[in-house]
Design goal:
alpha+beta; 5-stranded antiparallel beta sheet; about 45% helix; globular; disordered N terminus
């Protein structure tokens, strides 16, 4: 009798065999490795491609330096594994180096083949190889890293990663690269990168060069990278404050720097004071008295406008949506505010905005962590194990810090700084509190979302010129839109309307491409409804439906992209709203993708 096993049964049987191998007692001839038997199977070449990923992850997370050396050599070869799998392995090797302090044995100089490939390669592989060169101290890679760090034609993330890796290596190549970047004749962006690199090895010089760069900054220059470079170092904020006092920037640059500090949850006293004086703004205000709170509550009730307040809340300079979600769309740092008006009295909201440290909830108390090499991290605790601490900052960026590298940690304050109200007029303050007070109230346009409408979008930025004049053909759409990585977050209003004027101003184009996502857990027909087809073309993944207000699409299980091309010049409505619905008799199950 012949038995035929399905592929799922084969995979399940393989997993069972692997578990038995892992759990059986080690034999005398086993290699000194926690994954010795797995390595024998891996080296035999008999592992099915569908099981390679989990097996390699196991080896990287538990293997010794000899095991990692074999995996590393395989990852260098372009035709052994897929680029996606090679990238995952390189990232897992980096994790082994940073958290377990385990590095492959043998010659590691082969990384230069990925850092400076002879032929065009995946930039993600390049980036992973660059980071590994710094973690593994691959000195042979220094010339390639220096060349990349100083190459103005290279992508900014690769330049920065190469510079970071050089810092890890140290030596003349790192010094030469930093000196070249911080020179007075360099563009502001280069000087900012040089200051960031220098801050880790010479804080005082970095602070002075940061002040010099800020003094020369023009209206088009963003001071955030320079400020961040010093905020991330122990004593950096005070050193920058002292340097700025002697070499002050213009008032406008000081205001931009102060605004950025508040947007990332920093209010270091000395730096806030000097920037506040230079910009003509006061230092941190005193907490409001009970009488002041009561007076503001009355003004909010009498003069506040929730519609205007929602627009204030969404303003980029206030960064509210970076931290807070409304209708599940927005940042995941602070609490979701969808129902805050229905559950909180107005006086509580007034206090929360004016003095957030007084109203902070335990789950949103920050940690300030100082590492042994002087780095400062601040954010909410996302995860903690015996090996690592993961923090998320006010921008949503996560940082993984090896516990062994932590010198000290203290409890911080709220990531929402007191000074944000400085960037509002008194009427704007009343309006934004009124908006918060309405959130979640039934029977209003600020009620909690009850239908599967799209709230979290992405907007393509910039819009390529090839997409400006007409809708894209299939090839152009896939290359320039569907698989593009140039997307910025965009959020609908509480009522589900995506305001187009904000996006036009943001991406500087009258033609917009916006994209939402839907997770389908059970396949079937799902309806898509746009409030108006005027000026709108619709795609589901790569299927072009053209200009339609309603369509039914047969969705397989999985995550899918819904893309709209909107020519705002042809659309009378100031916004666009998209909802999904299950067709009658359909077995489809789905949720729209929310979050940041």
């Amino acid at each position: 009798m012949t038995f035929r096993l399905e592929s799922r049964q084969v995979a399940a049987a393989l997993v069972c065999c692997l578990m038995l191998v892992l759990c059986r007692p080690a034999q005398a001839d086993d290699p000194p490795s926690a994954v010795g038997s797995i390595m024998k199977l891996l080296k035999s070449g008999r592992v099915p491609a569908t099981r390679l990923g989990p097996i390699l992850e196991l080896v990287c997370s538990r293997g010794n330096e000899h095991d990692l050396a074999f995996v590393y050599q395989q990852a260098l070869e372009p035709n052994v594994w897929s680029d996606d799998l090679r990238l995952k392995v390189l990232d897992q090797l980096a994790d082994a180096a940073s958290t377990r302090k385990v590095t492959p044995t043998g010659d590691l100089s082969g990384l230069t083949k990925l850092i400076s490939p002879e032929e065009e390669s995946d930039p993600k592989l390049q980036l992973a190889a660059i980071r590994l060169a710094g973690l593994w101290n691959v000195t042979d890679a220094a010339p390639a890293l220096k060349s990349l760090a100083l190459n103005p034609q290279a992508p900014a993330d690769l330049q920065q990663a190469a510079l970071d890796a050089l810092l890890g290596l140290g030596g003349d190549a790192a010094t030469a690269a930093i000196d070249a970047l911080v020179a007075a004749d360099q563009p502001f962006a280069n000087r900012a990168r040089g200051v960031a690199a220098l801050a880790s090895i010479d804080l005082q010089r970095a602070a002075q060069l940061a002040a010099d760069a800020l003094k020369s900054a023009g209206p088009q220059d963003d001071p955030a990278p320079v400020v961040d470079a010093l905020l991330d170092r122990k004593g950096g904020a005070d050193a920058l404050a002292a340097a700025i006092e002697n070499t002050p920037p213009t008032g406008d640059v000081a205001k931009l720097a102060l605004r950025h500090m508040y947007s990332v949850g920093r209010s270091d006293d000395a730096l806030v004071k000097i920037l506040g004086n230079l910009s003509g703004m006061n230092a941190n205000p005193e907490p409001p008295t009970k009488e002041e709170v009561a007076a503001l509550v009355q003004e909010v009730n009498e003069k506040g406008d929730a519609a205007r307040g929602e627009r204030v809340f969404r303003r980029a300079d206030l960064s509210c949506t970076k931290c807070h979600a409304v209708s599940k769309a927005g940042g995941q740092i602070g609490p979701d505010l969808s129902a805050v008006g229905a559950s909180s009295p107005v006086d509580y909201l007034v206090t929360s905005v004016l003095d957030p440290d007084q109203a902070i909830k335990e789950a949103y108390t920050t940690k300030i962590v100082l590492t042994e090499d002087g780095e400062v991290f601040q954010g909410l605790v996302v995860d903690r194990t015996d090996e690592r601490l993961v923090l998320k900052d006010a921008n949503g960026k996560t940082s993984t810090i090896p516990v062994a590298d932590i010198e000290d940690e203290v409890e911080g304050k709220s990531l929402m700084p007191k000074g944000l109200v400085k960037f509002m007029t008194h009427q704007e303050l009343l309006d934004v509190i009124k908006f918060l007070s309405m959130l979640g109230k039934p029977g209003t346009e600020y009620a909690i979302r009850s239908t599967p409408r799209m709230q979290r979008w992405r907007v393509l930025s910039p819009v390529p010129e090839s997409l400006q004049s007409d809708s894209a053909n299939v090839t152009v759409f896939e290359d320039e839109v569907l698989y593009s990585t140039n997307w910025l977050p965009a959020y609908a209003l509480v009522n589900g309307t995506l305001p187009l004027d904000e996006l036009v101003a943001q991406v500087k184009s009258d033609v917009l491409y916006v994209q939402g996502e839907v997770d389908v857990t059970s396949a079937g027909p799902i309806g898509i409804r746009v409030d108006s087809a005027e000026g709108v073309s619709l795609w589901v993944d790569d299927r072009d439906y053209g200009s339609v207000a309603e369509v039914t699409h047969e969705f397989p299980a999985g995550r899918h992209k819904i893309t709209l091309r909107i020519d705002t010049r042809q659309r009378a409505e100031p916004g666009v709203k998209l909802e999904l619905f299950r067709e009658s008799g359909s077995d489809a199950e789905f949720t729209v993708v929310d979050g940041q």
